[in-house]
Specification:
Layout (H helix, E strand, L loop, with lengths): L1 E3 L13 E4 L7 H13 L5 E7 L2 H5 L11 H10 L4 E6 L2 H4 L3 H12 L4 E5 L12 H11 L2 E5 L3 E2 L2 E2 L2 H9 L3 H8 L3 E6 L6 H5 L4 E4 L9 E9 L6 E10 L10 E6 L10 E12 L6 H20 L2
Helix pairs in contact: 5-6, 7-8
Length: 310
């Protein structure tokens, strides 16, 4: 998959794509349906996605609590798995935010990227002040010569599938409900960083990763599926992970610490993708290290049984 980040300087071979437009946070089943419509609209054109980095909500409210389901690199990995060939990941800045809906359609979609067709959700808004609607995009497409498809909102039971609903499921400790809306396990992706090595001292060496900038799931212990994406230990593993602030050791900054079953090796600097499968228990403190070790052993036994049946 090729990533294009400047709509003003686009090579001729990167033009003419059929692209889905949106933020695609989580790349849930609703997003996937929009991408599939783009694939079907112009089967002979490259399949593209037009999105933004940072997320516009981050740009307009930089001090708001983290809300993203995935960082930009994790989103790119997921889109590549779906067969996206051209990822137009445009920097969201004052210049882009200041474009009127017509300027966005003309300068970005038509002249800049030269898209043959675009697919947008029924609730899509664009341009300065989010003043452009999906119907406006249809009119601009007719005037400027690109096709437009409006995708209906995806529903599951009586609820619209949305990033907001997925965030709520994760906050409630319901990763399977989140996965049903995502179409895949919710994954936390990042580089393994140095920790205090307490897990190693307790007999449970963990791979530590930051969760800064993403929506935190319910703090506690999870059964997880782990993909090591690079390095000598690349592959898939089962494990148990703790998400939170480590109250037993008076931690303050939330992170995720993952213990890989039946694994031996150094993961520092490797990129991990940790999929949350089932919430086992909340964070808690214990009367000493022996009680903590006993609980961690029980957590791992539970996780093994759950993952064996998954």
């Amino acid at each position: 998959m090729q990533i294009i980040r400047d709509y003003k300087y686009v090579d001729p071979e990167d033009r003419g794509a059929s692209a889905a437009i949106g933020n695609f946070d989580g790349v849930h089943i609703g997003h996937q349906s929009v991408i599939d419509l783009a694939r079907k609209a112009c089967p002979d054109a490259p399949l593209g996605v037009l999105t933004f980095e940072p997320h516009p909500r981050e740009y307009f409210a930089p001090d708001a609590p983290p809300f993203r389901l995935m960082r930009g690199n994790a989103r790119a990995h997921r889109l590549e798995k779906l067969g996206v060939q051209k990822l137009y990941e445009l920097p969201f800045n004052a210049a882009l935010a200041g474009l009127t809906p017509e300027e966005f359609a003309r300068n970005v979609i038509c002249k800049g990227l030269g898209l043959a067709h675009v697919v947008i959700g029924a609730d899509f808004c664009f341009g300065k002040g989010r003043s452009g609607t999906a119907q406006d995009m249809v009119q601009f497409g007719q005037q400027m010569g690109f096709g437009v498809t409006i995708a209906p909102l995806m529903q599951q039971s009586d609820h619209v599938v949305s990033s907001t609903a997925i965030r709520q499921a994760l906050s409630d400790g319901r990763p399977r409900d989140a996965a049903a809306m995502l179409g895949h396990w919710h994954r936390i992706e990042g580089e393994v960083i140095g920790g205090e090595q307490r897990g190693r001292e307790l007999g449970f060496p963990t791979a530590n990763m930051s969760i800064e900038g993403i929506h935190p799931p319910k703090f506690g212990v999870y059964a997880v599926l782990v993909d090591v994406l690079d390095g000598p230990h690349a592959g898939s593993y089962h494990g148990a992970a703790s998400v939170g602030v480590r109250p037993m050791f008076h931690g303050e900054v939330p992170n995720i610490e993952t213990f890989l079953f039946d694994f031996s090796g150094d993961l520092y600097g490797a990129t991990l993708s940790v999929g949350l499968v089932e919430f086992l228990r909340p964070e808690m403190t214990f009367d000493g290290l022996d009680a903590l070790i006993a609980q961690m052993t029980e957590d791992c036994d539970s996780a093994r049984k759950i993952l064996a049946a998954t």
